[in-house]
Amino acid sequence: MVRVRAWTVWATGLLAYIVAVLDRTTLGVSGLEAADRFAASPSVLSTFVVLQVVVYAGAQVPAGVLLDRYGSRVLIVTGAALMASGQLLLALTESLPLAISARAIVGLGDAVTFISVLRLVPHWFPPRQVPLLTQLTGICGQLGQVLSALPFLTLLTGTTWATAYLSVAAFGVLAIVLVLTLVKDTPHGRVIAAENLSARAVLSSVKTVWLRPGTRLGFFTHMGTQFSVTVFCLMWGVPYLTVAQGQSTGVAGALLTFSVAVAIAAGIVIGIFTGRYPHRRSWIVLAIVASNALVWTVVLALPGRAPLWLLVVLIAVISVGGPGSMVGFDFARTFNPSATLGTAQGMVNMGGFIASLLVMQAMGIILGAAGGYSFESFRLAWTVQYAIWVLAVVGILITRGKARRLMKAEQERLLLETFDVNAPER
What we know:
It is a multi-pass membrane protein. Pfam families: MFS_1. It is found in: Cell membrane. Keywords: Cell membrane, Membrane, Transmembrane, Transmembrane helix. By secondary structure, this protein is mainly alpha-helical. Helix 6 (96-124) packs antiparallel against helix 7 (130-141), helix 8 (143-158) runs antiparallel to helix 9 (161-182) and helix 8 (143-158) runs antiparallel to helix 12 (249-276). Helices cover 84% and strands 0% of the residues. The mean pLDDT is 85. It has 19 helices and no strands.
């Protein structure tokens, strides 16, 4: 009975995350319609999503602190309510400032959802299942991207802007009802809040979590693996495929759906592998970063449009970065105690989204300066990714060494303590 309840709680939390991903990605597939509705240039249009991601990334540490104190159920409901409100406002307004504000509200609600759902997993499942279920949470959540790429986009093109976005807001209300009905923080009930801490104590705790090498290893892991596919799916993928590469909207939607299928398959493999070989996790991450950089180099080096098969390869390779980024959360779990796990996961989650917002904004500026959407302007804009890959790899190599030394020192200390306890008296 407990096992059934555990899967019910996880599935309900996962549904809330799927809705959050749907909310996150709706503007990416409706970018051209948004440009017409709000008379927005490429740089202004990128501001919509960039602001959303700025809010998302900036709220991660506060969200983690709140999660450690109030638990998953409260934060998942709060996040769903915020996102539904933001989508409702976006559905009804034609004002550019209000629309931008609506996306900021969506970003704030999105910020608290994912790490709150992740926090449910170690409370409800045994440790050996946590890596795989962490992967499944992240990759199955991307089904929300399928909902935005297919039914939402179909609804948007077949009806009106307001109808499409009101439908998305309704999913948020459904998520609130289900979470309130079915989700508990732990098998024993609500998470018991810790004692009230002063602002100085909270900041000291945040600093302590960040200074742990494993937290920073997770941060750079998330940064290097996640941003390319996020930028592609969240903002510039559909315009790039349709305008620069000459594909139809239907093909673009199918490729985004294919991206989710690849991520799900890759996530299962990565989850099983990292669970069995935890000391090889960083090598998987480095291989994913290298493959992302390599496939983009091949595509961008072409003097003209890429053949469809190469675009399929591109989507497949960068999509592995989504589940690859989940390894960062496993690093956070390994090197942090349960009491501060929410804060650590929030810090890890900042990595990829900070990188994503920097790349999205830089691409918007480059596209605007290069004269708008074209093959050459997109070709130039995508090159900004290389700076992030270099930074992430350097960060991974440095923090990996520090984390390994710290783990080795801790193992030696425990061994000495065991020896001293078991040593015969003299």
